[in-house]
Amino acid sequence: MRASTAVTLGVGATAAVVVAALLQAAGSDPVVGAALSTSVPAEYRDLIEEAGNTCPEISPNLLAALLTQESQFNPKAQSPVGAQGIAQFMPSTWEAHGIDGNGDGKRDVWDPEDAIPSSGKYLCTLAEEVKGVPGNKQHNMLAAYNAGAGVVRQYGGVPPYKETQEYVQAISAAADQPAGGGGSSTTGEAATAINAAKSMLGTPYSWGGGNANGPSKGICCSPNGRSGTAITGFDCSGLVLYAYAKAGISLPRTAAQQYAASEPVKPGKVRPGDLVFYGTSAFTTSASTSVMAG
Fold first, then answer.
1. What is the value of pTM for the model shown?
2. What are the E-state strand segments in the chain?
3. 103 phi/psi in degrees, rounded to 5
4. How many CA atoms lie within 13 A of 93 on its CB side?
């Protein structure tokens, strides 16, 4: 599976699954890979590598994947429920766990130089708080970041919340991607993915909806307030995840993570099965619902 690079175009409705070749905007912010398998804007790489080594329970890859999931590296991100900044701290959590990472005398949730080190430190705190809970320790720590350590202790592991379960799965999958991104799919795999996508034409759009098994109810809420909680269907990356799962290829959940796991393709080299992404930077990367048809 590969991703392509060039112009800024895309579609956002499941009815447009199979389209002509569109290409991914390279964007103005450089993205680096090196030891990090998740795409990271260059200005945050050193911060993530340092904060990702705060304790043995986390890693730079894990922290990068978490920040991708939380805000797609947008330092101005604000959720409908009030989470703030690149690491999406709630105000009460920031008050208790935010640190002055750059030593300028202020703890600023909107400043990545404070928020990224705070996120690493907070993950380590959560790892300690749930260390006695059965199951996968990393999964429990991530679930605690999303839903709270008390909930993880209450349920004896990752709670039965769809949002939290998908959150843990997506970050873990992205963090486990080998450096260098993904490879190319075979012709047969590409055809299978295209046919799987075609079979879902007409399925409703649902923000956060869809998984490897098919359509599902989504989550709340998109940046413009759209909720998928009452709609069974797919969002863009959910459909891509499903189509490639049918071909035996496992992908992370979000568009930015899928882009990070893909191998860029030069213009003129696109083939059936190539994915289409668009955006102007790492934190605005989106996936159109296009699995390129032949």
1. 0.55
2. 2-4, 31-32, 40-41, 216-217, 232-233, 263-265, 275-278, 286-291
3. 65, 30
4. 23
